[in-house]
């Protein structure tokens, strides 16, 4: 099976193993910072990670890269289905590293009602070129969390992201599509 076929299957199925996702990630082209600028819509790739399905449960929209120093790492859909910028809460993120949150739809509904409490217009991350798994690629670094999201190019409008969270040994994978 070719790498292109495997990538297409994973994008469509949104599910694979961590080992297979790493193999694909390592074979994809690296990305420069300029490539990442703009707003991106995303979804998780399930690899039996504790966070599988969590972002979707809470109506995750994606990420926005205004420039290299102004990044909005978490966009979620509000009750009007409009993307809004959320302040990544270190306590909740650390809890997600320790617990396997239930992925019940009512939690997503509840979360949408609380969005005004965590909404922000301030940048909460930045983009830099970093080496990861032997290659230098565009990487988003959260301002207040030990999380780096590394990106590799699938095509002109799609990237495979790998979240490296210091508190979880297994990487979390996601796909971003350019808005």
UniProtKB/TrEMBL annotation:
InterPro entries: DUF4334 (IPR025568), GXWXG_dom (IPR025951). Residues 123-178 form the DUF4334 domain. Residues 23-79 form the GXWXG domain. This is DUF4334 domain-containing protein. It comes from Euhalothece natronophila Z-M001.
